[in-house]
């Protein structure tokens, strides 16, 4: 399997290095910025291409590691070349291979999305952590298991999902990563209302964040859950709802708490949470 990359940003660098160090045959890179392709080729001990057609011709699989918004545009240009028998891959979390590569069946190629569930932040360092990451893959059935086995041989764990669930998968990832940032921001804003400086507020909740995340990872959300929701402390939750400075803050707390109540019920199936449900719904009526 000869693998090439079109696009030499952080993801292209990192995947190429992971592949090369794992013994896969990384042929080289093409980029509209030749300096980037040269740097990536040097980093992975592969070849720099000044023509995408030549790279395609030399490869069995081509990764389009370009910005998500131009994946389809780049693929449309690749249709000018002979793609028969080749595997075209992208690394976008929210698009399926079929969405990214319209009409790929007519080219004789097969499409795959191979998404590392990991924030690739450094083109020269992130590859070290990718071997411990989780990859989600989908695409043509012909070689899906081959990609799963190939990636697993490098260290990552791999999950294949139905193509129709790709957006839902990406939403789940965003909740675990991006939306957590919003909840932490809300906590910091409220602590500032209590007199904390922004720096001191972040320092104050850091041990709480770390400990909680470690327990979630070790025991799952239900096992890690503490606080008034788990204790079915209706009065404290009522006080919280009455203390928020804006209706927006209250609404955020209410909606997240409704989901948290499901977790509490999972942890304590014999507890009657009827009054808690009423408190969370009352002001919304």
Structural description of this entry:
The chain has 285 residues and is of the alpha/beta class. 56% of the residues lie in helices and 14% in strands. It has 14 helices and 8 strands. Strands 3-2-1-4-5-6-7-8 form an 8-stranded mixed sheet, with helices on both faces. The radius of gyration is 24 Å and the shape is elongated. It starts with a strand and ends with a helix. The model has no long low-confidence stretch (mean pLDDT 96).
Describe the protein's topology:
Elements: E1 2-6, H1 10-21, E2 25-30, H2 34-44, E3 47-49, H3 52-58, E4 61-64, H4 71-78, E5 87-90, H5 97-100, H6 104-107, E6 110-116, H7 127-130, E7 134-139, H8 141-152, E8 157-160, H9 166-193, H10 198-224, H11 228-231, H12 234-243, H13 247-267, H14 274-282
Parallel strand pairs: 1-2, 1-4, 2-3, 4-5, 5-6, 7-8
Antiparallel strand pairs: 6-7
Helix pairs in contact: 9-10, 13-14
Helix content estimate: 55-70%
Number of helices: 14
The radius of gyration over CA amounts to 24 Å
Give the strand order, joined by hyphens, for the main sheet.
3-2-1-4-5-6-7-8
The overall pLDDT, averaged over residues, is 96
Shape: elongated
By secondary-structure content and strand pairing, the structural class works out as: alpha/beta
Major sheet details? 8 strands, mixed
Per DSSP E runs of 2 or more residues, the count of β-strands stands at 8
